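Module 6 notes. Inverse folding takes a fixed backbone as the condition and produces residue identities as the prediction. Think of it as a translation problem where the source language is geometry and the target language is the twenty amino acids. Below is one complete input and output pair. Work through it position by position during the lab.
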């Protein structure tokens, strides 16, 4: 069984990432890594859906705050999914942990669309007794985060 007890970030969907970053900094003193904009292909119910997301993570931790926004109708639409949205966890066995969580009753919502037609990189699941999502991020993506956290671009 996958044990979900050590999140590395908490994701919040907001109306405007830049505005939310400024407000959070003014209110709490938190600082931010550079704002990132990504075009993504997601695997949703076996279909590839193209979308985009803008996001930033707080510099401070140990559990970093992620602020994200996206186009209307997307998984980052504040009107549909605003507020505390998910807790993010590293995984060294993305597909195995997805299977384990689904066997425990979690529903797979979407994930990164891989070149071979399967999930790759990350996945979002919803536990049966909660509406907040679990994001599993493959440790293979950690170098992209490390580059970004060191001052470079994500990816």
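Target side of the pair, the amino acids:
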């Amino acid at each position: 069984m996958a044990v979900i007890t050590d999140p590395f970030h908490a994701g919040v969907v907001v109306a405007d990432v830049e505005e939310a970053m400024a407000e959070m900094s003014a209110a709490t003193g938190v600082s931010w890594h550079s704002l990132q904009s990504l075009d993504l292909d997601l695997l949703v119910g076996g279909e590839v859906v193209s979308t985009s997301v803008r996001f930033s993570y707080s510099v401070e931790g140990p559990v970093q705050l992620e602020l994200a926004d996206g186009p209307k109708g997307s998984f980052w639409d504040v009107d549909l999914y605003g507020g505390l949205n998910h807790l993010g966890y590293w995984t060294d066995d993305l597909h195995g942990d997805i299977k384990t969580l689904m066997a425990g009753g979690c529903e797979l919502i979407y994930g990164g669309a891989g070149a071979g037609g399967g999930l790759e990189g990350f996945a979002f699941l919803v536990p049966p007794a909660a509406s907040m999502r679990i994001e599993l991020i493959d440790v293979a993506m950690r170098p992209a985060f490390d580059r970004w956290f060191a001052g470079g671009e994500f990816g």
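Reference fact for the lab report: The first strand starts at residue 9 and ends at 13.
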